[in-house]
Amino acid sequence: MKYPQTIPGKFWIILTILFGQISLFGQVCDCPNGNNPSGPIITAPSETPVVSCFEDLEDVINDVTPGNPYYVSAFDAEDFAFVHVCVLSMAPANNCVGTIMVLVDAQDSDGNCSDMGPFMLEVTINDMTPPEITCPPAVTIDCSESVDPNVNIDAGIATAIDNCSGDVTISYSDDTLSMNGCSTVIDRTWRAEDCGNSAECVQTITQTDQTPPDFTVPDDITIYVDVNCAYNADTMFTGDVLDESDDCDMSVEATFLDAVEPGLCSGSSTITRTWTAQDDCGNSNQQIQTISVLDNIPPVLTGCPVDATVECHLIPDVNTYDVNYTDNCDMTVIPVFGDEEIIPDPLNPDACVNEFLIQRTWTAIDNCNNVSSCVQVLRVVDTTAPEITCPSDVTIECDDDESSASQGMATATDNCTDPLVITIDEFDQITGVTCTNGYTITRTWTATDECDNASSCAQTILVEDTTIPTITLCPPSVVIECDQDTSAIAQGIVDAFDNCADPVSISWMNTVTAGACEHAYTIERVFTVADNCGNSTTCLQTIDVEDTTPPDPDCPADETVECDDIPVSITPDVTDNCDAGPAVLFDEVSLLDGCGNYTGTITRTWTFTDDCGNAATCVQVLQSKTTWTRPGVRPCPLMWL
């Protein structure tokens, strides 16, 4: 492509445009009206611009500082004003050393470009600054691990930055030194190259046997001082290590080192016994045994603190950060906290009231007013459940109020949510039923905050029936005859009630004590009233059974009989209320006239006595008489008195 040369003393320049596109710096010269005689007039710089990096060219040729030999001016005669110079370049990306040609044009406010059209500007690129390379730290890895950084990320990879925007190539070479049978040291030289400039650093990689020996430390122990306030902490008293083992070293032996700290009283101390086992490759294992004789910062950050996710009650104060800035020239740079802004969390559009983002901006200004800023985003979340406190477990009677209004309500606090807006729910589950009125209520309380974080606790309410029934009426003690009904139906049953709703059961047991006779005895009737939970009470009714009723004989009537027809004595029939066969005693007294009249009385007496000594008597009087049939004849025999 050819462009006319209109600047005196210059000549035709042919520029081959590479890559088929134009890279633009600054303002774009569009020139829809084409080149115009009334367009800006371009004045070339007095010297060939020299820059370290191609991207510095725009600032160099537009720098109006007086005496700048690289300044390219463009003047619009119509508007009597200087206009911005447009730089167009097709320089290859790696043009960092040498001379290149760039296109320069200018355009006024009316869209007119210079009538001279774009012209070539010779520029010298002189990048003599090597990259800044940062080696990974020295590492020690197990001999079984790969040292290839592309395989084992733990080996580390160097990083580099360059003053220009071109690519930096990083490579490395290794120098391996075998020290002994346990370790191999690799000196890895990392090299960073830009356009002929290079920088190197060395990383040390040590491959070694990193598996320490293994052993079992003796248990912590307490020993006692003797009468001289001395103690013996020998291993025969405090325990020894007897099971040392190692993958490679068969002769590992654990040794110990004691550190003694005074205790809280005279003669007491604490021995911190550090047991160490080390193999031939220097791998060691330390374990601590404590023998009682009676007796870790935020990194000093350079730059902004990293983004973090924090709970809503653990938002760190901005003053907790020690943000340090360093500068290549100004040693007095002071970090300044700029502002703090609370914004919605775009990753959590349904966030609750306690979840949001805090954006903090730190700004550091050096004495040249160069400004650098960094931003830390704190994602504030609420994932912490409320702390819930249940009412204490209680044991209540079955007639007590089981409700939470009587047995206690749970309370809760939260790291973020006001306790007044925490939702507390309760759920009851009944288990362990031992009887109708004996069971366990497990009352589960759940507290939920505004972000639906929940925690639960349980209150155990043991419902018992330990109250015995109440006997309101016990049948009174009575004295009855032996022929009366002794049953509870006849002699009375208790009246009772229970503190809980269920009916009570009533039973009784008789204890009979014999009296003075067969039909006299005492019944002690113990009534037992029980509820269905095994609570019971008793009362006693005494029934004295006695026999005070005498037998009832069927006594014969008195008679008048002929002296020669006196009836034979016949024992009258007799009944008794209890005794089936009362004893009978008979007595007869004859008072007949002994003077030959054969008249008089015969008194017959029957005495009936039952088992308990009750007696009844029957008396029959026979009146004897003589009836004469003819004179001088006596019908009755002569009785001699």
The shape, in one word, is elongated
Counting H and I runs of at least 4 residues, what is the number of helices? 4
Percent strand equals 35-45%
What gyration radius follows from the Cα positions, in whole Å?
64 Å
Strand order of the largest sheet: 3-8-9-10-5
- What is the end-to-end distance? 201 Å
User: What is the share of helical residues?
Assistant: under 10%
Mean pLDDT: 81
Residue runs with pLDDT of under 50 for 5 or more positions: 1-27, 296-301
Count of distinct strands:
42
SS-based class: mainly beta
Largest sheet: 5 strands, mixed
Describe the structure.
The protein is mainly beta and 641 residues long. It has four helices and 42 strands. It has a five-stranded mixed sheet. A four-stranded mixed sheet has the order 12-16-15-14, with no helix packed on it. Strands 17-20-19-18 form a four-stranded mixed sheet, with no helix packed on it. The longest helix is centred in the first third of the chain and has 5 residues, at 57-61. It is elongated and about 205 Å long. The termini are far apart. The model is unreliable at 1-27 and 296-301 (pLDDT under 50).
